[in-house]
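Hello again, I could really use a second opinion on something today. I've been staring at a protein lately and its backbone has me curious. You're getting the sequence in one-letter code plus the fold written as tokens. I'd be grateful if you could look everything over and explain what you see. No rush at all, and the record is pasted right below:
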Amino acid sequence: MSGQSITDRIAAAQHSMTGSAISKAVCKATTHEISGPKKKHLDYLIHCTNEMNVSVPQLADTLFERTANSSWVVVFKALITTHHLMMYGNERFIQYLASRNTLFNLNNFLDKGALQGYDMSTFIRRYSRYLNEKALSYRLVAVDFTKMKRGIDGVMRTMNTEKLIKTLPIIQNQLDALLDFQANPNELTNGVINAAFMLLFKDSIRLFAAYNEGVINLLEKYFDMKKNQCKDALDIYKKFLYRMTKLSEFLKVAEQVGIDQGDIPDLTQAPSSLLEALEQHLASLEGKKTKDFSADTRANTLSSAVSSLSNTGMSFSRMDEKEKQQALEEEQARLQALKQDQRLKEIGMQTPSASPTMQPMSSANNHNSSMDPFC
């Protein structure tokens, strides 16, 4: 099925008649057309999240209503739109989602009546679980891990031991939900699932960057921890190594489906000798007989590990800078378009011979011609 369906057009017309611009924009972003939501509709909805007179609960509830649709295309696009707003919208959008007791209840969703319905329904169930987990993470720590300040003075690098041991498992759970999407290149067969995968790819980089920095902090504190803290920290580190391997597999899929290799970070694992040093230190605290590690050997092993993980962090930072530059260029292009609209408006006002019947668009409408999500 291509293009907007009759149902899409009727729904959009109904929202036009009732004057609900938000509902109409959501409807336009979540049509039956098998392609990702259009940028102009997403941009408009992002703009809405920044307007204080716009009801975020109404916007979110409208998206939730779209996930009650029987079509996998509509439901998938509603999830993609929600994810996009969580990433790029005003923070009050994800704050509202985090405040709700329930979000998406799509564990049993299945579209039996459409081409690709069975396959895409599987990914809808997985994707909705990730978005639920992303909102839950925000509820638990009051911050979006993908947006937190990073670097040597960042949130995860400066966190104290007790809070760090509580926070890292929350990141682990969110990353697990993301990696459980488990799409291989042969399953990324249409614009809808591809749009979801791209958002997951971007989240995976930022999420793992925070995770990586937390683990660096954990390792730097490890040999000064109490026994129970060392036990928890060692378990966290072992799980981190497993998730690094899983992320590497996820990034290989990204490369195979056409994401530029320059956009894919390098993952550098710490030397295996570090794990042995961590295990031996814990064993010594538990009073067990252990291999003797000199202070110099331990310090060198730790330094090498931190250096390796820091290199991974630098790779993530390069990805961030590239995306920021792209966003800046898009914003400059948008501002240039607005200036062009303003110049056209001024020219129109300076043309007295123009007949009113020849000016069907007001200055406001002329401005909105590039912003209106329904054009």
In short: The chain has 14 helices and no strands. Residues 13-19, 354-375 have pLDDT under 50 and may be disordered. The radius of gyration is 25 Å. The CA atoms of residues 292 and 360 lie 85 Å apart.
